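TL;DR need structure tokens for one chain.
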Amino acid sequence: MTQTGQQTSGKVKVSFSQGLKIIGPYVQDRLLEQVKAVWLIITYLFLFQTIVLGVAIAEASVIAGGIALVVVGLTFFMEGLVLGLMPLGEIVGVKLPQKQSLLVILLFALALGFLATLAEPAIGVLKAAGMSVKAWEAPLLFFLLNKVSEVLVYSVGTGVGIAVAFGMLRFKYGWSLKPFIFVLVGSLLTATAFACMYSENLLHLAGLAWDCGAVTTGPVTVPLVLALGIGISRIFGDGEEGAAGFGVVTLASLFPILTVLILGVFYVGQVPEPDSNPARFFAHEKTASLFIDESAQLRYMVEHTDEAVQESYLSGLTQESRADVATKVAELRLEFAGAEQIQTGMLEMLLKNFQTGVQAIGLLGVPMLLVLWVLLRERLPRSDETFLGLGFAIVGMSVFSIGIELGLSKLGDQIGGKIPAAYKTVQLPDQKTVLENFDPLVVQTAITADGEKKSFFIAYVDEKYETIPYQDQDFNIDRETYEYLPSIGPLYGAEGGLGGILVVLIFAFILGYGATLAEPALNALGATVEELTVGTFKKSLLMQAVAVGVGFGIAFGVAKIMFDIPLIVMCGPPYLILLVITFFSTEEFVNIGWDSAGVTTGPITVPLVLSMGLGIGGEVGVVEGFGILSMASVCPILSVLCVGLSVTAKRKKALEAGQASSNPLDVEVSQGAAS
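>> reply
TL;DR here they are.
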């Protein structure tokens, strides 16, 4: 009887150790999947900086810990997607078209695209990028990335939501993707060119706008959109489920560019124009609009400008307010000069990111549950797994965000700041040295060939003698200390030489190529494409075409930052060529080619490449370091469509050859029948 009771209860008692043995191999496999996606690119960056550039990784232990958190966080997050968000999205995507009108479906698609964007792990990188932008060089960019960063994210989400809604209409009515591409790309290029000519502020915004299009197509948005697309296709479409999702990723990459540009046009009149003179900039009446309040403005000014700029600002104030502001400035100077940098505690960081994860996943999961329960009146199968998955997604997103902050972003920014050493002299701020008891009498003067005087001194540092350039502002008379930054480069050839530049571009190509082949989504796309094309477009061929395209894209993006080339000059010609190739391509390959850009910007690539671009930009002195992601998106489309044209031509030739070879047989058969 007891045995029968145990059988009918359906419950099996498992000890903790037995549970670990059961789930251990599963967890190990999932962790290894993420390690495989990360280790190659991380190892490559580590070896390049330490061996090729000859510079040690600063804060190596912190970065290593951050990368470990990235692996763990991404494991939890992806498992949460599989268990929670994706099944929920699939059931809603299938049931909604069966029970609701087209208007309700479109409203849901709009909300889904918007909320999915907020849940994308890489979207937080945009907020962190704001600190690298100098307020006086790009006021509008600084304003959007700092004061109204949430509004910026909402505008990106709105663009994705509109894209998903249009994608659903495509599936219902069977519209071609080509008209959307021609209209959207043509409009975006025109708007970008006009914006760049209209305002210098909008010129600096263009790179961010086009990069936002690449950030949106991540591991959250794509599977949920595909699930809804498959549901729509089953009810309204032609039943080709395998092709159901193609095209939406393209729209989700293009519409956010437009919404960010519109946002920039809306705010451009509220901010001052860029100014190379910080003192003059802070005296402008519109400068206050960039900050929350006066205290925030003073803090920023003291932290990022020298005392001459601050004194100039004080001299422009009225006599009544000057004394009070001068006191605040003096207090801030003491704070930044004497105090050590206060590091955010791990617990505080975890709580902040956990709150963000709850908000992002909750805002996405709760509405879908309400739609399922209230609107569709459907039960949630395997609800325990779904809720467990949502919990995993929250934990994973929280841990992953911390890993980005401590690991990927630090590593990307660091190597980005060191890469220019291949062709120019760069300083090493993370190796700052302070010489105690400095005596100015050791300073000597040398005369250059042009008759210019150069001051220097010889110091014994790290058990060797070094010649160090002398700068008056680096000598503290009161403390008798001299502070200087070591420098390296150019490592390959002369200053600004072609050899060093080629080293940088080759590095960028290999980085893009290797990182793309490591993306799990590319394997899935390759298998789908091979199946849809009945083997004519091989999985390996697609993967190589996309990887080569991304490699060239990142190389072009790095060149854009190195030489401060306007984005419209870099992306305009490739997109115009794409429009021509798209016109002559079949609908099949247009969908495949344009969607292939979506798999190139994964949760690892985006923060790493974006922070690297900002690091390069900061070192070479350009206003902003955006644009790499946009170039990494356009080039694979170009390479895939070119390969698609080749595949189509070969297939057509083979069919023609088959028909030609069959004609003599037909003639012989007809003659035999006649006889």
